[in-house]
Amino acid sequence: MNRRKFLGATATATAAAGVSLLPGNAAAAGDGLPALVRRYLDQAVAAGSPSVICGVVRGLRTYVEGAGAAVGRAAPDGRTVFQLGSITKTLTATALARAVGTGAARLDAPLVLPAGFPVPRKRARRITLAHLATHTSGLPSLPPNLLAEADPYDPYAHYTLDDLAAGLRDTELSTEPGAVYAYSNLGFGLLGQALAFGDVDAMLRHRVAAPLGMVDTTTTLRPDMVSRKAVGHVGGEPVPDWHDRVLSAAGTSMYSTADDMVRFLRSQLRPEISPLRDAIELTQRPRFTVNRNLRLGLGWHLSRLPGGATMTWHNGGTGGFSTCAAFSRESGVAVVMMVNTFSEETPTAARPVDALTFRLLGELGAAA
After folding, report:
1. What is the mean pLDDT of the chain?
2. For residues 119 and 125, is the Cβ–Cβ distance under 8 A?
């Protein structure tokens, strides 16, 4: 296992790297949504997931179902708690978009941090908030001083704001800001700190999760959530959750449920019914083109489905969890899938959770 990739815990280039977005066998006329979702749940379990939960939005209908590999053990349901991983970045981007809407921030404003937290530069061009939200800042994926003291089972837990300040002094940009897409957990962590220095987690709850009714989307487990939480795994073995108070805006320690993610995706499909309408519309607007298969909104990745419709998506993971969420406003369909095992893509194949999410979205869209 690549240790740096494990610490980054996401596979955000999968759609651009050639994952087939074509549906397999289109749902027959008599095949209902539960049967279709169950087929994909079975595939996720067969791919090695101890348990899996899938949420679907299709038009006005929502459907959530789970499955588990252990005989006799209850399958997860819509209130089962998983670590969300880098899908959190879309919440952070929504918080940024809200700040833009109120005039508290500008996308073209340079990144500003408190004294003692130097912002790296390359030549004369400064990193802007838009660069952070589109992964075009030139920042590395991780701070240069994160790995040395990291516990591989909880790699961000030791990292403090003082460590971040020290790491920024040694951080060099690989490219000039705005020039190249390079996925960066550090960049989104800094975006969160720019929006609410030292209070990122409360900011995400108050500005995004609470208005959308996402009651279980938080970095801090309440007592009632502990009893509902799935246990993360690596290679079939249980592992601890990840914890982080510095780069958490990147998704290193956020929890959520399928019910919450269905609420979030429903608001993405129909922003006009959401209290965050303008912010959601802004996050989905394309701002940077990577190649013919991939564009970036704020936080969201945008790819083309067969037939020309846009699939808007993000995936993620922590040490013991893997997740993927995708939707198409043209077809009115959204899918989220969460599994309690770490997985990574190979040179020839996407992570199972990503491939299954994309294929299910395509199949539902074809049948819509």
Report:
1. 92
2. no
